[in-house]
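#onboarding

Welcome to the new folks! Below is a worked example of what a typical request in this channel looks like: someone posts a single protein sequence, and someone else replies with the predicted structure as tokens. Don't worry about understanding the tokens yet, we'll cover that in week two.

Example request:
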Amino acid sequence: MAELTGKIEKRNVGVGTWALVATDSQVYELRKLSSEFQQPDLNVTVTGQVLENAMSIAMIGPIFEVQSCTKI
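Example response:
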């Protein structure tokens, strides 16, 4: 299980996807982000895992499957 902190962004690639720009500037595509946290510019800490063998059409960075999310 990994923990990341950063800011939520909506990326308009294809049909659109939610991303996390981490404090180290790495961008992660978020999978299974709860609708209550689907807000641009929201600062959060997410826990979950990077999906090593997953791909998407967005191709914005590693895919991170969210287990939990906390607003900070």
